[in-house]
Design a protein that fits this description.
By secondary structure, the protein is α/β, with parallel strands linked by helices. Among the domains are: 59 residues; 134 residues. The strands form two sheets. The protein has an 18-stranded mixed beta sheet that branches. Strands 6-7 form a two-stranded antiparallel ribbon. The longest helix has 29 residues. It starts with 11 loop residues before the first helix and ends with a strand.
Length: 587
């Protein structure tokens, strides 16, 4: 007998069928194979129907499965970022196992499959390629954290003509991820290509093939959509007219030594200048060890032969001083630029040493026209003697309202959203001596660079060098001193020379109101390689007595020695009586 089952009325037919089966079993009627088979068929049908009911119940009651298609696409995009597909892991592809709706949504995202076609296991590549339905694919090979299987490299190289984005990054000497020579690509059709980004390792046996002098005159790729090109230690012929970003780099060093980069792997002067002149839409350009041996353009010829680069917004150029200077003689940018220049650049400065070069004193004057197009408000000078690097950076203010200025000055940190890079010059292999000193360099900075500077950030300068710098910057309101020691700090409480007409006779930086000490070592007593609390108190007092008071004195990541802790609280109270805002943050 069948136990009573609570069921809705629409199940009356199946319930009657169940009672008929039960009656047949209890009546003792002869066994029928056909009847037994029909019972099993009914059970299978009900099992499938039950599964469908449960699926519908989940789809109706689960918030996740009731999301709109737009939200499903958004979820998929985030999962793709967090869980990329790999040859050994499905990653985001597992979303297709959640529900039919997720699977349907994934299958409709052709670009998603196109981005993963080179990242899945060998047996799945053709299936994933089919799911792109002709959408341009993305190729990204990088051997920094994994060994790239040779079949994956071959697949990528065979399908580069279908790519929208190609990114190749070689990190290990053993792995060769890019196998095409420029001559084999010359004139080839790349109808979808928008981004070409190839960084390969220096390999002496193939450099002449990838960088021979003839590659710069090859017929370029036919890639009408190409917008961004980044080529390191390789050249692929391209048309520059439509580009918005261009980076051409040559390494000087590798793990085992120096690369003999000679002019035979660089374009000729005419080829190089012709390439630049055609970069009419380039906004960002980067050149590293790419400048050939140019003859500087004479001033009288600049009107007719200079290169204007009308769309350029940012330039990063690294080369020898002479070649960088020669290139700049050809450039006449028609707008304000963000400049990042690295004269005498080397990959590993600590290993090469340094040298004295008087041409460093005449380098900033070459940029005078750019300085007049800028509103320069912050100067940062850093001398790193250990690595033979001197950096001189000028920044402009993004916002110029008085309330913003006051808010930033009183802020604890520098507020990187307030300033934007303008002109950054970093001298590599740099040594200063008595004949060509840092003081001489400070004196060589044209007044146009310094006229509106009100924030100064310095690191690694001696007391004498600080005095010379302070004398040229009488309008400084905020000063950042990195790893300060007592002699450098004491400059703020000393008197300038009597003939120093650009500053107050009562002290350096007469408009200084905000002092920031970055990473100071605070000691209990004077003369121990840092600064002591009493010295900070003396500076605040001397400036207040000279009618040059500080409004705020703050530290960042200060190291407070155990011996200094005993007097810390009392000294801070005395400081607060002189300076309105005191914030000594210790690490």
């Amino acid at each position: 007998m069948v136990n009573p089952i609570q069921s809705p009325s629409w199940l009356a037919g199946p319930m009657q069928r169940l009672r008929d089966i039960s009656t047949s079993i209890t009546s003792g009627s002869p066994y029928s194979p056909g009847f037994a088979a029909s019972i099993i068929e009914d059970a299978e049908a009900l099992r499938g129907l039950t599964a469908e009911f449960l699926r519908c119940a989940n789809a109706y009651t689960s918030p996740l499965l009731r999301l709109s298609p737009e939200l499903l696409y958004e979820i998929a995009a985030h999962v793709v970022e967090l869980e990329p597909a790999r040859p050994t892991e499905l990653g985001w592809i597992r979303l297709g196992h959640v529900s039919c709706r997720f699977r349907s949504a994934l299958l409709s995202m052709r670009g998603l499959w196109a981005s993963a076609v080179c990242d899945v296991a060998l047996h799945a590549r053709q299936d994933v390629l089919a799911r792109t339905a002709g959408a341009p694919i993305s190729i990204h090979l990088e051997d920094k954290d994994e060994d790239i299987d040779s079949t994956r490299i071959s697949f990528a190289m065979e399908h580069i003509a279908l790519a929208r984005r190609i990114k190749i990054e070689e990190f290990t000497p053993e792995g060769v991820l890019w196998t095409h020579e420029p001559r084999a690509l010359s004139g080839k059709e790349f109808p979808f290509l928008e981004i070409l980004d190839i960084s390969v390792i220096h390999r002496p046996h193939r450099d002449i093939g990838l960088l021979g002098a003839d590659v710069y005159s090859l017929e370029p790729l036919h890639a009408p959509r190409l917008q961004a090109v980044h080529l390191e230690n390789i050249f692929v012929p391209f048309r520059p007219e439509n580009l918005t970003r261009l980076s051409l780099l040559r390494s000087q060093s590798f793990e085992d030594g120096t690369i003999p980069n000679q002019d035979n792997i660089l374009p000729s002067s005419d080829q190089f200048l012709d390439l630049l002149e055609r970069c009419i839409n380039v906004k960002h350009i980067g050149l590293c060890n790419m400048i050939p041996d140019l003859q500087p353009l004479h001033l009288s010829l600049r009107h007719g032969k200079s290169i204007r680069l009308p769309s350029l917004e940012m330039a990063t150029i690294s080369s020898t001083m002479s070649r960088l200077t020669a290139l700049w003689s050809y450039l006449t940018p028609s707008r304000r630029l963000e400049l990042d220049l690295e004269p005498d650049f080397v990959d590993f400065p600590v290993t090469t040493g340094g040298f004295v070069n008087r041409d460093r004193l005449s380098f900033l004057p070459l940029l005078l026209e750019q300085a007049t197009l800028q509103s320069l408000h912050e100067l940062a000078i850093k001398v790193d003697s250990e690595n033979f690097v001197t950096q001189c950076s000028f920044l402009r203010r993004r916002r110029a309202t008085q309330s913003d200025i006051e808010k930033e000055l009183l802020a604890y940190s520098k507020g990187h959203d307030v300033y934007a890079p303008a002109i950054d010059v970093c001298f590599f292999q740099c040594i200063w001596d008595d004949q060509v000193s840092l003081e001489d360099f400070i004196d060589s900075i044209p007044e146009a660079f310094l006229a509106a500077i009100h924030t100064l950030d310095v690191s690694g300068l001696s007391s004498q060098q600080l005095r010379r710098l302070f004398m040229r910057l009488p309008r400084i309101r905020t000063l950042y001193l990195h790893a300060p020691i007592a002699p450098a700090l004491s400059v703020l409480s000393s008197s300038p020379p009597a003939d120093a007409s650009t500053t107050s006779p009562h002290g350096y930086l007469p408009q200084l109101r905000h002092l920031r000490l970055m990473n100071p070592r605070i000691l209990a007593r004077r003369g121990q390689g840092g600064i002591c609390l009493q010295e900070m108190l003396d500076i605040a007092s001397s400036r207040a007595n000279a009618s040059l008071p500080l409004r705020s004195l703050k530290t960042e990541a200060a190291v407070l020695t155990n011996a200094a802790r005993s007097t810390f609280g009392s000294t801070i109270k005395r400081l607060e009586e002189i300076v309105p805002v005191v914030d000594i943050q210790t690490s």
